[in-house]
Design a protein that fits this description.
- With about 425 residues, the chain is an alpha+beta fold.
- It has one domain: Alpha-Beta Complex (Nitric Oxide Synthase, Chain A, domain 1).
- Helices cover about 30% and strands about 10% of the residues.
- Strands 2-3-14-11 form a four-stranded mixed beta sheet, with helices on both faces.
- The longest helix has 20 residues.
- The structure holds arginine.
- The site of arginine (ARG) has 9 residues, from strand 15 and helix 6.
């Protein structure tokens, strides 16, 4: 992959990568959206086959009409949809149903602390796009639209749905922007260990690899139309990144840490009324701890606490000096400081916890159950110092929902590199 401009911009300023990426290529095979492991069949009768369960369709339509009085009575629409299902095994949402379904899927995401603004989700209806090349182009447009100049806009792009005998496209990457993890012969990883699997798969599909920095953006791997996957580089100007600096410690910039501005989850199915949209990347904005207390800190990720502690001059010989805790705080200060200075939307865990409490209250006032998973909602830093720690939640699952595909990579053992595809 040609050069990136990482590290050359003034510290604290967001950067866009400027160069296009790697060679494209395709391998082989395609699958639809399998039923999520452990889910009752009744709830997901059609997942994976493209065949819609009429009861799920009805449940969603009743919800849509109940929450959107201006849509009128549900009966005529229900008759129409049941007719479509009887004839074709599936049905087509109206643009309004799709947008509402996507927003409610966010509202129902029990692991997300940032749901206060679920109504504001910007929905890009791209259901007519089913080819890998089309998906690649629209994903890049998604990133540009969601990023803007740093004021990040929660956005989802919905591609073609699964239909009987015609599965929709799928993206292998877990997010549109993720960093490569290059495994060294000794088993250690340069870059993000979490990206090691996709990095290896992309290499087998013909990706020559990036520059070899710790922050090389992975190409998108997109499967569509029963054809071999397409490798598509994400153009540098669509990837906003923030080099990390610290408000007090000048040496922090020398660590060469950075993170991308937009978390855009791309490997979950959007399920609305029995219809499965296997390719529906969505993004919000970051909460600082995701980067500072997990991505850069976890031992299985960038594992940078010790280097930060060393530069801070902490005594790392004993856990009881709390050097990890101290380093975590400074790392998180650097993340929030750098994003703020760069004009990139980010939130802190105290503010976001308060907002979540407001969201819970609102949902309760609306007479709705708000599903929430305590172990995901409580921030990984200073948990008990936030209000979300001190209560229990309804750990139920509601639909519409974002659901994880069963992860199955048919190319794990090395696919044939069959034919070149398009560069984005
Ligand atoms: N935790 C993931 C990451 O660090 C992102 C998940 C979605 N996060 C969000 N703020 N919308 O990349």
């Amino acid at each position: 992959m040609p050069g990136v401009d990482g590290g050359k911009a003034a510290p604290g300023v967001a950067e866009r990568r400027t160069s296009p990426g790697d060679e494209p290529g395709r391998a082989s095979g395609a699958t639809g959206c399998p039923r999520p492991a452990g889910e009752p069949a009744a709830r997901h009768g059609g997942a994976g086959t493209g065949v819609v369960d009429a009861a799920e369709a009805e449940g969603f339509l009743r919800l849509f009409h109940a929450e959107n009085r201006s849509a009128g009575p549900v009966e005529p629409r229900l008759r129409e949809v049941l007719g479509q299902i009887a004839r074709h095994g599936t049905y087509t949402h109206t643009a309004e149903e799709l947008a509402y379904g996507a927003r409610v899927a966010w509202r129902n995401s029990g692991r997300c602390i940032g749901r206060l603004y679920w109504r504001s989700l910007h929905v890009r209806d791209r259901r007519s796009v089913a080819s890998a090349e089309g998906v690649a182009l629209e994903c890049v447009e998604h990133l540009r639209a969601a990023t803007g100049t740093g004021r990040i806009r929660p956005t989802i792009t919905v591609f073609a749905q699964d239909r009987p005998g015609r599965p929709g496209p799928r993206i292998w990457n877990e997010q549109l922007v993720r960093y490569a993890g290059y495994e060294r012969p000794d088993g250690t990883v340069n870059g993000d260990p979490r990206g090691a699997g996709l990095t290896a798969a992309a290499r087998r599909l013909g990706w020559p690899g990036g520059e070899g920095t710790a922050f090389d953006v992975l190409p998108l791997v997109i499967e569509a139309g029963g054809r071999p996957p397409l490798l598509a580089a994400v153009p540098g100007d669509a990837v906003l990144e923030v080099p990390l600096t610290h408000p007090v410690h000048g040496w922090f910039a020398e660590l060469g840490l950075r993170w991308h501005a937009v978390p855009a989850v791309s490997d979950m199915c959007l399920e609305i009324g029995g219809v499965c949209y296997p390719c529906a990347p969505f993004n919000g904005w970051y909460m600082g701890t995701e980067i500072g207390a997990r991505n850069l800190a976890d031992e299985g990720r960038y594992d940078r606490l010790r280097v930060v502690a060393d530069r801070l001059g902490l005594d790392t010989s004993d856990d009881r000096t709390l050097w990890k805790d101290h380093a975590l705080v400074e790392l998180n200060v650097a993340v929030l400081h750098s994003f703020t200075r760069a004009g990139v939307t980010i939130t802190d865990h105290h503010t976001e916890s308060r907002r979540f409490m407001a969201h819970l209250e609102r949902e309760e006032r609306s007479g709705r159950v708000c599903p929430a998973d305590w172990s995901w909602i409580v921030p990984p830093l200073s948990g008990a110092a936030t209000p979300v720690f001190h209560r229990y939640y309804d750990d139920v699952r509601l639909w519409p929902a974002f659901v994880h595909h069963r992860r199955e990579n048919p190319y794990a053992d090395g696919p044939p590199f069959t034919r070149p595809g398009a560069v984005v």
